[in-house]
């Protein structure tokens, strides 16, 4: 029996539609792993296979098509992953995680970030291209679990790499979910299976074995000092995106009402989980009380019983109590036996001196210390002391161009935000692209596709130069 062409089309469409429906059901097909494996060995082997396929068969345009599809289709999961992340990690704010995830999806650069350099002259033409490393071991923090995975996935696919993700054990469910969604979207866009992989049960041992594996060409560690040091001592090419403790300087040339709003918005964004968020205010003595006034007139509360806060925020050894990281301001006050002025309080302020542990330690919670400086020079010195050479982020509010410039030169941070909340530095309300892997220690800065490439030179002598 002969099948007519239009009948054949109908049958093909029905098969495709039934396959799509199956994949859309959220009930992931057991035969397809969508990137999740029970052992690290399998996770690496599958990513190696997928990356080889990507490098051999997919042009830059084909990779861009996959990225476009990620931007379009992963957006549909943003609310769900933001809710899942808050529920699983018990940290942060859903509405802010939605903003962060959208930022990762829409503002992480794609293949347009890659550049070819050319040298031409009498001797011919030489080009330098940005080539993939191969398979990258990417380690993500609990504070931005899905944002880091999405942003790294876009950058690393743009640069033609495969990725083995190592999520924080405290965010394993939501991380697994987003890796499955990403793989599904990649495959629907015609990309290879298992381009992004992970193990079902991430632990410190699985990260270590991933970092050590010979098939891993590069390590990208986003997290605190422990993981960054482990990556840097691995003997492999490593990008370290480590901790920060961003100071925010305020001088006497600014509209304090606007500054109060910016600091509250930046320091309480996702309950201060971003490594870029304002962690300590350094205010000139002449305006410190007025600034506190403006902040407490808005949604911040000045707490005088500092001992009560110390008892719950600091452990006996002086370290930060992780159980309060990313919690709401009212919850923290309640734990300390203090009363919040409202349940939706955004920020707690304490007036302390420079050496106080709340100033010196990265707290990652909506409790911000304020220290007073006699003059701008002292404010700058305090800012440098607080930042501790992390080379991460600093913020300043000033209309004095000399002050803006002097502090920028002195603090030497990767991100320097002027007259805006800290998140302007990662593209939220400021110009420039977004990333959730800010590599201060190793110097790549705000990472993008080209950070995950190695340069290869191709030389043709006596040809192709047209001048
Ligand atoms: P963390 O260092 O505890 O964990 C980060 C990741 O590293 C996790 O996946 C964890 O399982 C793994 N890990 C931890 N110690 C390790 C070790 N010794 N060997 C191998 N893997 C290890 O950090 P966190 O609490 O998840 O995240 C918060 C920290 O990350 C803060 O210090 C914050 O400033 C920093 N951070 C930095 C950036 C950046 O771009 N620079 C972005 C987000 C978070």
TrEMBL record:
One of its GO terms (molecular function) is acetaldehyde dehydrogenase (acetylating) activity. Signal peptide: none annotated. Residues 38-302 form the Aldehyde dehydrogenase domain. The keyword Transcription does not apply. Keywords: NAD, Oxidoreductase. The keyword NAD applies. It comes from the Bacteria. InterPro entries: Acetald_propionald_DH-rel, Ald_DH/histidinol_DH, Ald_DH_C, Ald_DH_N, Aldehyde_DH_dom. PANTHER family: ALDEHYDE DEHYDROGENASE-RELATED. This is CoA-acylating propionaldehyde dehydrogenase. It comes from Halanaerobium saccharolyticum subsp. saccharolyticum DSM 6643. The lineage of its organism: Bacteria, Bacillati, Bacillota, Clostridia, Halanaerobiales.
